[in-house]
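Per reviewer request, we include the raw input and output of the structure prediction for the construct analysed in the revised manuscript.
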Amino acid sequence: MAKPFRKLSKGRRRRGVSSVIGTIFFILVVFIVMAIIVTMFNSFYSFTKQDMGIQQMNQQRSETSLSDASFQFGTPALANSGKYFPENSISTSTSASVDTNGPGGGTEYTFERKLFYVSSTGLYWAFYSNGASIVYRTSPDGISWSAATTLTSSVTSISNTAEGYDFSAWVSGSSLYYIATGYDLGDDDFRFNSGTLNAPAAGSIAGTITLNTEVSVATADPVYSFGTIVVSSATTPVAWVSIEEKASATSDALIYLMDCSLTTATQCNTATNWATSTHYTMANDHDYPNELVPLSASGELVLIYDDSQGIFTTADKFETGALDIQTYSGTAWTTTAVTIPTTPDYDLSRASAVAIGSIVYFAGYADTATGDTTGEIYFWALTYPNTVTTPVALVTSAANWDVGVSQNGTSTSVADITIAYGSGSNVYWEFNPSVSTSTPGTGWSTAQTISTSETDVSGLQSTVSGTWGVIWSSGSASPFMLKFAFLANSLSLDQMNVPTVITTSTEDATSYSSENKLFFSEGLWWDFFSDGTNLAYSTSPDGVVWSAETNVGTGGPPAGATAHGYTITAFQSGNSIYLAASYLNGYFGWRQGVFEASGTIAFSSGWNAASLSSGETATGPISIEVDNSENLWVALGVSPSSGNYGIQVYELPSGTGSVTFTNILTSATSTSLVGCIILPPSTGIGAVLVWGTNSVTGAVSIQTSSGSTFGTAVSPANDYALGSSDAEIVNNIVYFAGLASTSTGASVGSLDFWDFSVGASATSTPILINSATEPWQAGLIPGPTAGSLVLFDAYYSTLAYYTSSNYGATWSSNATLTTLSPIITGLATSSEGTFAVSWTSGNIANYNVQFAAIPSISLASSSSFPVNAISLYVYNSATGVLAAHFDTIASASGVLGSFNYWINEGTTVTIPLSIFSWTTSTSYVITVDTSNGVLVSNSVTSAS
């Protein structure tokens, strides 16, 4: 009976397992079916959502209405920079005079180096002989030069005269190295020294040199003349000297090479640290010329020398001959010379060379026959160590040309070459943006004139690299004129020259930055200034060509009073202009007019005079605004008959029909001049007043008025120099930028930014824009783009700008406009919607009022939703070349700057752009791309 039971139990167990498996299978099927249903539902939902998105995008595309309302190209002089060189675009310093003393050889010879631009100091440095000593002068712009400072008096020839050709210099970074010697067997040594080039003190253009101790280095034979000093770029920099020497007057000339490792700043100021590297014996070496050229690799050098003239005689001093080269690998010199193709022959004393990467570029006076005293200008390139291109004649007219060759910019790989050459009464230049070593004669510009009114040009010197400049001696008898010129269009963007509006006799022509003097209306720029006697304005359609000045009218400052820029200010409302002038003798004036396309202002009346409170004298500066109810407000600094300086604010209520102003506020709080900025509230009526100590830092106060009284003063944490600062108001928020300091009475400090909401009890925490301690000046411009601000800043000779797209919370890095305007004062920024600045340039009379504008585009949207503009293209229709591309990815290849802006429905925004190259009177196609794929294009013609 047991077995049937066990079988029955076993059978039951089988049926239980099948039931479990069946149940699991059923559940699995149900799960799969549900998953399929869910997947199908999700897929259908996703498809529906994507379809809705596509429909919405298509609808947005069809409904997007964005237009290019206007396009501002900016200042052509700034745009035509870098590698862009239109014909006849030279801008020189009109051959500024550096000195009138010294011998005709004050800057001889061309293959030596005596002119440098040192960016760390912001100065040109010119070294030359004044007939008694080697001296130097410095200049921030090539126009105004410092007084001469003696570098060394140890250089005398056998005639006891210091000559320019007894001296050669080299600059590496801010370090100076020079050699000097007597001439004509006068010495059996040379003098060496080194030092550091320093920027000028505040308000000065005179750079200084911290010199080490000059040392005399012995040579094997008496020095007859010498070539050059250079510093090679080896791991440890090495100073190299090439000298020409003779044992006697009838001996053959020898080239003597010496070197010294610059392990420390003063290593080579000890004579025993100079080693005799090579003593070349060249039995028929020509007098004077030999040039060392350092390559930008690991200490390689190229030595170029004349080897054809035999024993020197006076007659063959400037005759042509064959050139040889030998090279240094970083460890040893070659022993076999490579001869430059013998046709033509060269006078190396009138030639020069520069290295870019592993290529040496040479230009010089030459001729097809040995011994000629007049010739053409030839150019060739040497690829290290010994590959020489066929020489090409760049100038075919025969003369005694001095030729200087320079590299533009600081690239170590781009062949970007300018040559200058002069003879007799003429000085010229030519440029090649991309020299080809296979066809070196192609790509050169036509000759451009620097000067045709010289006398016996000699000793022409050009800068080695970077900012291009040229110096030469002019004259056939003492006193000789030492002259200088620079080429704006061969400079990098941060060295560009800028248009001059007018020349004036006052350095305060556009002061202060807190006042408004620059506007755009009726297709014209309007720049207000003082010419030293009159308060006037000039107009321009393009920022380059400016009209003659127009006096702002009679009834201004009384006869005999000096007119300063800070005695006038203006306020723009549409095409209406309101002027206010401080008369400095107990009253101020105001008048209103309308900008006209003819470049004139249609004034409604003459100057209206308003008397100050009893005993007060207007001291300037002055500020004017018109609020939303057309009430006219004027604020100005005053000086009472006794006591402290102060601020007075006057209001002329709209529609009163009277010119009587009512004084709303009188503040007497400072023992020094007080400045003010008065701003109209964005909504409502009244005035927002910012005031404080003017020329140096002091406490700044903000007070607001909606009627006849001003509220409690609010002040930021730091002290500010109000005359060097600027403020604007947008949506009842005041934005302020300027020179800041934690101490009172400072003339230098940092560049800070802060804002203040009208009605608030405190300002925002200041944002540090630039921490460098400088005499900053600031000019602020609000843009219609939500959050858009542009800030111009200046110190000494440098002018730059920053942009912000979030109302100053963050700022772009600074973009330099120019470093060639000496001692910039009185930044005057343009009105809302344009991005330009005017200023006074100079440290001695006469002064220049100058102008620069950055490009911008205005986009208008009539869409029912915000539109995201993500890229912009500027296409030159004439050349078929893309002139500029701006994009959301600013670092992408070919992109000049960032472009990512939202344009809200029914609004117009103006967007500042980076400077780009453009040609005048040319048709361009401007294209804007949006995030939803809509392209907006418009054809515009650039300014003439």
